[in-house]
Amino acid sequence: MEWQEFKIKNGIRIIYKHIPEFHSVSTGIWIKAGSRFETEEISGISHFLEHLLFKGTKKRNYRQIKEAIEGVGGTFNGFTSEEATCYWIKILGEYLELSLDVLADMIQNPLLNETDIEKERNVIIEEINMYKDIPARYVFELFDETLYNGHPLGQPIAGTIESVKRTDRKDMTHYIRNFYTAENIVVSIAGNINERVMQMSVEKYLSRVQKKVDNAFVLWKREPAGPKIKTLNKKTEQAHIVMGGLAPSRFDRKRYPLAVLNTILAGNMSSRLFNRIREEMGLAYAIKGMTKHYQDTGAYLIYAGVSPENTEKAVIAIVDELKKIRDNGVTHNEMKRAKKFIISQILMELEDNLEYMLWLGEQRLLRKKIISIRETVEEVESVRSGEVKDMAGELFKAKNMYLSLIGPSVDKEKLMKAISSI
User: Fold this and answer.
1) Of these residues, 5, 21, 38, 50, which one is catalytic?
2) Which of 32, 81, 270, 292 has the fewest C-beta atoms lying within 10 Å of its C-beta?
3) Residue 221 lies in a domain
4) Which domain holds residue 80?
């Protein structure tokens, strides 16, 4: 059996995979709370709270939290995405109860001390400023703003400097009370598990979490509205470009043909764009494609970093490759290589129990039915070349073309002409 599941009396869901040959166990508490659940007024609050929960509880100060885990050789961290917040610990199996104790304490009893809030407010503002100084990263925020214009999915996960400045302790306690509730929590565990200790511990440490209602968000209901371009003029050595558009959601089976399409087009060093843009034309060191999937929509993205004088040439070449794959499809050998690459990457990644815990937890939090590894492999293997060509036809059209760019001043009209020509 790939995993097992149960619920405790307040409805918190526990999903776990016992891997006895491992020494360690990875434990995560997942909460259905992320940037898409936020209003513009409190944008970034999920991420703000993720920082603050490591600052101390009614039971442990920040030093005691760190020393409890690191003092027995464990590691821990947290992250916030558009649709979830996760707090996790990786530790030797004999300390599983300790990891559940610490994580449960953090989400239920945070101090949210005013002094800590003010300190962390400054830290997050510096984090936002840091990302703005990394154009290869910040260009993705610009892309989301352009693609999901005016929708919570277009808000930066860390929020804005203005929203971080105005978010206060009252906002935070209200947010925890309404979002950190039993219906919205999943505990995911993978590794060397003592099942009796685990079951006893989750009841002991999490049964007091209050029930409320399932967290709701603003659905994405819009059709593509491109072509659109957003640029930020900045004196940089490279022009950083992200091109892409809307794509299938996490629940749409078309995400499998999209995965194959992305791999063939820009997913690795054998891809068409890597060969064309880097190997043949020598325009970019970095050229890569990726996909994102949410509960009601998704996105495909192509990133390239090029010399400013080569910006137009690179965009035209990328559009040319999109047209070729849309109009002519893909070869049998490309399909074979892409499927093997995707499946191998999934299987190798899940050999790490931390990755396995993350994979289980995200699925259980955001899906009614978990797609098993076997089903995933079968779905990828079943993708036909015609489906990949159809996916390219669905995505690669002018109204679904969006481009964000950070770099020296560019001729936006020429770039618009290039992406409109598709």
Assistant:
1) 50
2) 270
3) no
4) 4-206
Q: Which amino acid does the sequence have at 318?
A: I
| Rounded average pLDDT over 189-212 | 96
Section 25-45 average pLDDT: 98
- 218 in any annotated domain: no
Say if CB 202 and CB 20 are below 8 A apart: no
Whether 182 and 326 map to the same domain: the answer is: no
Same domain, 232 and 347: yes
CA distance 244 to 196: 48
- Residue 249 located in a structural domain: yes
The token duo for 275 is 């060969």
CB of 263 closer than 8 Å to CB of 383? no
**pLDDT of 111-163, one tens digit each?**
999 999 999 999 999 999 999 999 999 999 999 999 999 999 999 999 999 99
Q: How far apart are CA 273 and CA 44, in angstroms?
A: 35
Q: How many domains would you assign to the chain?
A: 2
Radius of gyration from C-alpha coordinates of the chain: 23
- Do 191 and 146 lie in one domain? The reply is yes
Asked if 50 is an active-site residue, the reply is yes
Instruction: Count how many Cα atoms sit within 13 Å of the Cα of residue 315 in the half-sphere of its side chain.
Output: 31
Tell me if 210 sits within 8 A of 182, measured CB to CB. yes
CA atoms lying within 13 Å on the CB side of residue 281:
22
pLDDT tens profile 257-273: 999 999 999 999 999 99
Please confirm whether the linkage preceding 308 is cis (ω < 30° from 0).
Answer: no
Distance in angstroms (rounded) separating the CA atoms of residues 233 and 37: 31
